[in-house]
Amino acid sequence: MNKEIVTVVGTGYVGLPLACLLALKKHQVHGFDVNKKLTEKINKGIPPFKDSLVEKSLQKVVPFYLKATQNPKVIGKSDVVIISVPTPVDKDYRPDFNPLIGAVKTVGENLKKGQLIIIESTINPGVSEEIILPLLERKKYKVGKDFYLAHVPERINPGDPERNVSNLPRNVGAFTKKGLEKAVVFYRSFIDAPINPMHSIKEAEATKTIENAFRDINIAFVNEIAKSFDQMGIDVVEVIKGAASKFSFMPHWPSCGVGGHCIPVDPYYLIRKAETIGFSHDFLKLARRINNSMPDYTAELLQDELNEFKLSVKNTPVGILGISYKANIDDTRESPAFEIIEKVKKMGGEVMTFDPFLKKYSTEKSLQDILKKSLALIVATDHQDFINRLDGKILKKNKIKVVIDGKNCLDKENIEAYGIRYKGIGR
């Protein structure tokens, strides 16, 4: 398959990099999105979020190979349609399929015979069969006869210039052998990595959820160890480094919380699906409870350290450094920083915020401004700018008394050498 017309439904953090890659490979691409501001920015070659690879790609492919639109009619003119919309959880941690259902309905209303429909959104096993397929077959079209349906779980690592949408291996599942073959050939046309055909679409659906459940469990393990070692006076970071010298140990790192669109969300898709068949994923539930507890734990560390000065969080100027869930990007999805902010506010702290990538969430204009006004700091995101600039000398100069390093990214010995109270997660 070469130079197909492709519509990518959803042009956010996952869909837009994918659309750019397809366009760079000379596919004719429509980026369909209901967000008018998003489509307008894309058509001007402006990335709607910070991503250097997307920015460079847009300059090369807009408008010749990539155009963004709110017109769903482009779907019916395409050979391949890829659905890449969010699959979040609601306030009760239950899967919210509404964005996906809306997208699938739009595709179904504009479906043409012979199309390959691909779901990239993260879903639990059974969703393609139980939710997506019935919506697409409403016009009496039949999968394998009138159209082909495949699931290829998205893989992307935001902010990583080396491991990105172009070179990460992908798993492919489909309802029919021919649909599987079409999807595999299509992905091999633009992905420079192995494309792995799965035996069934359910197997493909399951791969993404267990990948991130695996990471969630291991992070929960080290977060619990960090809490334990904190009481024992053991530096958990040094212990993990030592344990990692054994070939069978895979290091994971504790922090103030788990953020992003995958790790804190995907396990719930497995948990809730299992409940419908009478099975309880106790291990996954425990991991989620532990990781969800870390923002509160971080705020409690702040109170413990202020106690050394006979101070309370109440009425103390506290600077929160970093809002995004991950270093050096502007993505706030499921960021633990928001929970830390709310916790410190409930404790009566005078909260200030600064993130160099998210000015709209920052109460202060610069790092220097927040340092001048704060008595205590919580590092919630390990931006390189913070690592480069926050040392004992600058903290001492600004009369900072306490630093809570939620990412264990600062130089502990250097900061303590200036008489500043330093506390990391498990160190």
Draw up the topology in text.
Elements: E1 5-9, H1 15-24, E2 28-32, H2 36-43, H3 52-61, E3 66-69, E4 80-83, H4 98-109, E5 115-119, H5 127-136, E6 147-151, E7 170-174, H6 177-188, E8 195-197, H7 201-232, H8 236-243, H9 266-276, H10 282-292, H11 294-307, E9 317-321, H12 336-346, E10 350-354, H13 367-373, E11 376-379, H14 384-389, H15 392-397, E12 402-405, H16 412-417, E13 421-424
Parallel strand pairs: 1-2, 1-4, 2-3, 4-5, 5-6, 7-8, 9-10, 9-11, 11-12, 12-13
Antiparallel strand pairs: 6-7
Helix pairs in contact: 1-3, 4-5, 7-9, 7-10, 11-12
Can you describe this structure?
With 427 residues, the chain is α/β, with parallel strands linked by helices. It folds into two domains: 195 residues, 3-Layer(aba) Sandwich (Rossmann fold); 228 residues, NAD(P)-binding Rossmann-like Domain (Rossmann fold). 41% of the residues lie in helices and 14% in strands. It is built from 16 helices and 13 strands. The chain has an eight-stranded mixed beta sheet with strand order 3-2-1-4-5-6-7-8, sandwiched between helices. A five-stranded parallel beta sheet has the order 10-9-11-12-13, sandwiched between helices. Helix 6 links the parallel strand 7 and strand 8. Helix 7 packs across helix 10. The protein is globular, with a radius of gyration of 24 Å. The mean pLDDT is 96.
